[in-house]
Amino acid sequence: MALTDNHNSPTVSSPRPPARPPVYLIGAGPGDPELLTLKAYKAIKQAEVVLYDNLVSEPIRALFPATAELIYVGKQRHRHQLSQGDIEAQLVAFAQTGKRVVRVKGGDPLVFGRGSEELLALAKQGIDAEVIAGITAANGCGSSSEIPLTHRGLAQGCTFVTGHGRNEQPIDWSFLAAANHTLVFYMGLNALPQIRQQLCQHGMAANTPVALVENGCRPQQRLIHTSLEQMAHDALRAQLQSPTLIYVGAVTELPLQLAQLRAQAASNPSQFATLAKESA
Ligand SMILES: C[S@@+](CC[C@H](N)C(=O)[O-])C[C@H]1O[C@@H](n2cnc3c(N)ncnc32)[C@H](O)[C@@H]1O
Asked: Which atom of ligand 1 is nearest to the CA of 137?
């Protein structure tokens, strides 16, 4: 008997459309694939569509599934390929196909990454999304070059600042210059003279130590020790390129101190052996 013939028969509901998977906004960290979280790795491995930025390093791109559709949506200075609005529209369109979509960004998606704008764009279309944290450049590059963001007696806090300041609210330079804390400028390589000028004008000493970290957490990482006064000159002389972070504050001298201590230990190992015996 056909089900439709009998009006008293139990209702047969039409199958529910399969639930759409959430879009994952993934932080890829500063470059070293071993700094990816396990959660990020698993989501990447299951992706059918990957939209990724130019700061996502080659070794991390190599983890993208061979079967996935890969879409480069990177923005580079003077070479904007897609507007932020275009990226959001693409993200929404791919998510609406029901495929497993991941959006991979350098560092953490919610630190100078416009990830929150993408979350809003997805939410406006009723699309679920989940953020998977990444190691932001300030943390990753600090650790890989042994610059602590805080250190007892030297820095009680740390502020992440955008160096380009385009379309942003005005920066409170007197707050930045005054506090006993570490400053980390993202996207500041082309604004070094203005950063120096503003910080000095608001009272920071011109000889404040600075470290510049180019390509942090990557095999080609470079670390340059300089000062507020000299940083623009030294960056030019070393021909530093993006991505580079600018660390300002006394903590930037720690790698120098460590190098000195290690050199002392290497040149006089017996002294350390004696100390170890005495304290045993
Ligand atoms: C658009 S912001 C993206 C920040 C990213 N969302 C994060 O959390 O690290 C790009 C800036 O981050 C910094 N940056 C990112 N990765 C870096 C790396 N591996 N080495 C040095 N600086 C890096 C640079 O200042 C670069 O201009």
From this structure: 9
Do 23-135 and 138-258 come out as alike in CATH topology?
Answer: no
Q: What is the DSSP letter of 251?
A: G
Q: Which two tokens stand for residue 20?
A: 């759409």
pTM: 0.90
**pLDDT value of residue 208:** 97
pLDDT digits (tens, 9 = 90+) for 139-197: 999 999 999 999 999 999 999 999 986 667 889 999 999 878 999 999 999 999 999 99
Only one residue has tokens 């993200």, namely: 91
Stretch (H or E) spanning 211: strand 209-214
Name the residue among 162, 93, 122 with its Cα closest to residue 25: 122
Q: What spacing in Å lies between the alpha carbon of 26 and ligand 1's midpoint? A: 15
Q: What is the pLDDT of residue 169?
A: 80
CATH code for the structural domain at 138-258 = 3.30.950.10
Confidence tier at 82 by pLDDT (50, 70, 90): confident
Fold of 23-135: Cobalt-precorrin-4 Transmethylase; domain 1 (3.40.1010)
Interval between CA 216 and ligand 1 midpoint (Å):
9
Mean pLDDT, residues 45-71 taken together: 97
Instruction: Show me where the domains of the chain are located.
Output: 23-135, 138-258
* Inter-axis angle of helices 84-96 and 115-124, nearest 10: 50
Distance CA 13, CA 21 (A): 23
Q: Catalytic residue numbers? A: 53, 75
Q: Is 26 in the pocket of ligand 1 (CB under 6 A)?
A: no
